[in-house]
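Look over this one:
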Amino acid sequence: MLKDLPRVSSARAAEIVDVGYEGFRSYLKRGLLGRVGMLPGFHAAGSDTHDDPAPRSGWKQFGFPDLCLMRIAKLLMDAGFTFASANGVVSQQKIWSRMAHDVEPVDRFLLIWPPYGDHIIFDAEDLHHLPARITEAKALGVITLLNLGDVERYVSGKLALTE
């Protein structure tokens, strides 16, 4: 099961995501993934309720869903998306939640189009809508289509080498 895969150190996470260690740490300090997949902070009544926007910057271990989202962000940045645009896509609870609950890699697709990184996730039962959405999105310009199952297979394969 994917959730049973080992958690890895920052250095190993950087290797899996395929970025240098310093670049990986820089992304975390800039708020990569934001607070997705985390509970809200607990605060005393009447106290300041500021939650750190980059909580992962101090983390030393990373699990499967975090690594998948970081890998997606890396692929998007390689495709020309800015850090802010890529982070806006991967910092969504709906993507993290799906990957955190998958038992095995699932072929679902992420369609992204300009100018603001608008996106839709197509699960297996939604794939019949994909051709029409691609046609609509192409009218706005270039589109990006990622098979999230391929990302899950890539990350799980790298994590299996860690065990």
